[in-house]
Amino acid sequence: MDKQLIHQFIKNALAEDVGDGDHTSLSTIPSGTQGKAKLIIKEDGILAGIELANEIFHEVDADLKVELLLKDGAAVKVGDIALTVAGSTHSILIAERLVLNCMQRMSGIATKTHRIVSLLKNTKTKVLDTRKTTPGLRYLEKWAVRIGEGVNHRIGLYDMILIKDNHVDYAGGIANAITAAQKYLADRNKNLQIEIEVRNLDELKQVLAIGGVDRIMLDNFSFENLRAAVELIDGKFTTEASGGITESNVAEYAACGVDFISMGELTHSVKSLDMSLKAY
């Protein structure tokens, strides 16, 4: 966990939500009131975000007593209690929605990812996330993918060179894009992997003739062409399939022999896992 990043996220989220005060709690509950609450799982899945929840509670109020009953990555079922918290009721209620929003979304992502990983368990293929994340929540969403046993692709624009179709078209072709990327890294003494996206077998053949990359992304290939592409590459480069891949067809893509499958739906359209925080 990157604690500095997490604490900045929590501060920003609380500022957005609390403003100049939780006036509902302040007006209805006497100052100094103490209470307890438990986080109840209301849907089967994979738990994620419980470590983050602990940080949120303690950022709100260092005196809150939090007991984590389950761990991130645990398989949970309806009725399970993930954690309990005790202390100032005002503090518990301030933390409540942020804890739930984060844990529900992260658990939804982890659950989805875990299902995909299970579908690929008898193949060599691993599932990757993408940059199709919620602005401001990328760290949390990619953390949830890892909890679900998926693999993080690049975190942002800064930690890998990924030459996609627009880059190729603006650069004036595949050869121009690859050689320019190599020169850029050499001139700046930067050590970044280079991946290039190809849209068809002709573009793949151009890349194979030039070389100089670490990974080839095979975008929106048919199963027949994907198998042909893997055969042409013949282990010389890491392979990644992308585009139009869903839970219903991911196993068929993996059967084509690619090393990785990238799936935007791990993060961009996932259903949150239902849970609630209840006083007791």
From TrEMBL:
Domain of life: Bacteria
Translocase is among the record's keywords: no
Pfam families given in the database record: QRPTase_C (PF01729), QRPTase_N (PF02749)
Family: Belongs to the NadC/ModD family.
EC number, UniProt record: 2.4.2.19
Record's function text: Involved in the catabolism of quinolinic acid (QA).
GO MF, any single term: nicotinate-nucleotide diphosphorylase (carboxylating) activity
Pathway linked to the protein: Cofactor biosynthesis; NAD(+) biosynthesis; nicotinate D-ribonucleotide from quinolinate: step 1/1
Keyword entries, A-Z: Glycosyltransferase, Pyridine nucleotide biosynthesis, Transferase
Domain Quinolinate phosphoribosyl transferase C-terminal: 109-278
Domain Quinolinate phosphoribosyl transferase N-terminal: 22-107
Listed name of the protein: nicotinate-nucleotide diphosphorylase (carboxylating)
Enzyme class: transferase
